[in-house]
Amino acid sequence: MQISVLRRWWPVAAVVLLLAVAALSSAHSSIGASRIPPATDSIPYVPEYPTAAPDPSIPVEPRDTAETTGARIPGWLVTAVVGLLGLALLGAFGYLTWTLVRGAMRRTTRALPGRRPRRTPEGTAREVAAALDAGLEELDDRATDPRTAVIACWVRLEEAAAGAGVPRLAGDTPTDLVSRLLRGDPSAGVPAIVSADVLAEFAHVYRKARYATREVDEHTRDQARAALRRLRGELAAVVADADAEVPA
Length: 248
What we know:
Layout: H1 2-27, H2 75-111, H3 121-140, H4 146-164, H5 176-183, H6 200-211, H7 218-245
Helix pairs in contact: 1-2, 3-4, 3-7, 4-5, 4-6, 4-7, 6-7
């Protein structure tokens, strides 16, 4: 984590350091300046009046002999500081550009849809059959509440549909998602395995267990078990037909 932070902020730190060096150099030096005496041609004209004794003339100090009042900054130091600042700014700009380009490339790579593996009716039927077997096992457990067991079986079918790649649409009813799993969804690359009509009986039991206000009794459990076994038999036939087509 510390290395990544250093990589991100080193250009800014370099620019700040160079600015500090430039400020320190300017604080300990001053621009060379000379005390310039007034030029002789800038003396105002004073008319001469006759006097007994003429006033002595004001001596004019030559410009070349003026006393230097400060030290000069070496030219190479100014050039070096400006060059370093330019390199630092160029490096910071390059790093910022590289960061933006890398982020854009990562977002583009993530946005590319992954290629789904081609599914077969046999493979999908095996996955749904595994979900049904788990549901039947839970229904056979008399210690489990019938309403909870029926709803859990339907949730397993929805999870199998999502695992097979069937998309959930905005206007889907609880039956639509599982129905598209059984009859197939060409847009999602999911092949048809059995007719969705075999799901109607269990869908009716699920709606009764999910939305009924009265108590769900053992009769509902038996209805759900019978509907799931019928669907399980249809799936077993699909798997058996696929195995029979495979050459020995």
